[in-house]
Amino acid sequence: MIKLTIKTQAKQELIDITERVQRAVRELGISEGACVLFVPHTTAAITINEHADPSVKEDILTALGKLVPAGPFYQHAEGNAHAHIRASLVGHSVTVPIADGKLLLGTWQGIFFCEFDGPRQREVWITRA
Ligand code: ZN
Fold this sequence. Notes:
- This protein is an alpha+beta fold.
- The chain contains 3 helices and 8 strands; from the N terminus they run ββαββααββββ.
- The chain has a single domain, classed as Jelly Rolls (Sandwich).
- It binds zinc ion.
């Protein structure tokens, strides 16, 4: 297993980690099969989406903010219930197929770490599937 460390810079942001994951897959020696990427946090998530146009990640954050606004109406006393809910909606893991040691992603796809309650130091765990 490889643990990537990610230092997020903002309250919420999507960070393209595709190249770092590709390097980790090489280090793990996975040539065929798949890898699992797991986020061990409750206010962060991981997703795969378009990384050609950077406005897509901003649109995702805007939409999640409208779907799950911050507010005083939640019971969770820490004040970040919206971040927990956004993280659950997006999900804590993805599986990516691998062939010839390369991530098999679609032409426009990239892997994004999703911060919803930063800035913090975060991790993504990468294992063979
Ligand atoms: Zn909390």
